[in-house]
Each structure stands twice: as C-alpha cells, then as structure tokens.
C-alpha cells in the first residue's frame, strides 16, 4: 500500500526589501515615461497574480493607450497644444495613474493573501517557571512527618478601664461660704492694719 507522499513545500515569500524595490520600479516606469509605458505595471500584476481580471485590465490599458496615440497623431504641433493633443495627453496621463494604482492594489493584495501575517501571542517569561526537583534518596528512606501547625491562642479580651466622671462644679452654697470667709478675712486684716497704724503713731 502506497502513501500519499510528501506535500510540496509552500513557496518562499520574497523579502520585503525586494518587493519594495520592484514596486518602486514598476511605479516609476509609467510616470517617468509620461504614460507611454503605463502598460508595464498591469502586465507585471497579471503575471504575478495569474488572474483573468488582471489580464483583462492589461488589455484595456493597451486599448486606452492606442486611443491616446490616435489623438496625438492628429496633432501637428510640437508641444501637443491643439485640442486633440490635449485630449490625447489627458488620456495618456489618466491611463498611467490608473495602471499604477491597479498594480499596487493587485500586488499588495496578492502577497497579503498568499502570506498572511500571523501574530503570535506573547509568551510568559521563563523566570516564573519552576523546574521539578528529582526525588532525594534521603526522602525515600526517611519519610517526612507532616508538621501540624500550632493551634491559635484563644483571644483574651482586654480589661475594661473605667472612665473617670468629669469634675463637677461646686454647689452655689459652697461658693457663698467661701465668699463670706474671704469677706471676714478682709475685715480682720483691715482692722489689724488700722490698729497697727494707730499704735505706731501713738508711740
């Protein structure tokens, strides 16, 4: 019984630098030739993509180029300043712009479909990876006894400290008594000072 065989390897994607250089060349040729070589860009697109629509566009560019040549051939001035010359130059330049735009679109779409960009998710850092340790022969001969964590100590509530009551103001009767004593003391001192002064004068 024969197998299906090996699948052919996928075509290698051209380097980005080579693609950029080719695109610059096939864009510059129609512009630098003032549209006379505009058919080069759609021809390149048709060869790369192998699509029937691109070949039809290449043929259409040749037809438009022939129409512009027909107008330019009827112009007998040196700078294409006649109405036919102006129409022929406008058609020529528009054809060049359309050919360049189609070539860039077809070429970019072709390589994007053929080699889609694949974004890989970021990988976890290797520093967090824990490597498994090989079993120790000591652990095989001396099995470890599971250590039971100590029981938590019972929570003892803190003793309640009584809050002293705020100081009370003395009663009005006490104030009156103190005031009376102060008055008596003032009278006594006044009398004593008077007696002391009289005795000193008599002497």
From TrEMBL:
The keyword Transmembrane helix applies. It comes from Streptomyces albiflavescens. Keywords: Membrane, Transmembrane, Transmembrane helix. Residues 146-170 have a biased composition (Pro residues). This is Integral membrane protein. Residues 176-203 have a biased composition (Basic and acidic residues). Residues 137-203 are annotated as: Disordered. The keyword ATP-binding does not apply. The chain crosses the membrane at residues 20-41, 53-73, 85-105. Signal peptide: none annotated.
């Amino acid at each position: 019984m024969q197998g299906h065989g090996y699948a052919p390897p996928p075509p290698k994607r051209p380097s980005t630098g080579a693609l950029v250089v080719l695109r610059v060349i096939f864009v510059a040729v129609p512009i630098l030739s003032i549209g006379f070589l505009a058919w080069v860009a759609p021809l390149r697109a048709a060869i790369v993509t192998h699509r029937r629509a691109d070949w039809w566009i290449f043929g259409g560019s040749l037809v438009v180029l022939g129409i512009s040549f027909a107008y330019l051939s009827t112009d007998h001035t040196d700078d294409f300043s006649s109405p036919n010359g102006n129409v022929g130059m406008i058609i020529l330049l528009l054809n060049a712009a359309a050919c360049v735009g189609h070539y860039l679109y077809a070429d970019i779409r072709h390589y994007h479909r053929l080699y889609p960009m694949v974004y890989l998710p970021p990988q976890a850092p290797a520093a967090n990876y824990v490597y498994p340790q090989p079993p120790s022969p000591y652990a095989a001969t001396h099995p470890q006894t599971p250590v039971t964590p100590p029981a938590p100590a019972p929570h003892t509530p803190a003793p309640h400290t009584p809050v002293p009551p705020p100081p009370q103001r003395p009663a009005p009767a006490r104030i009156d008594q103190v005031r009376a004593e102060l008055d008596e003391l003032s009278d006594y001192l006044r009398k004593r000072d008077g007696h002391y002064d009289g005795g000193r004068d008599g002497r």
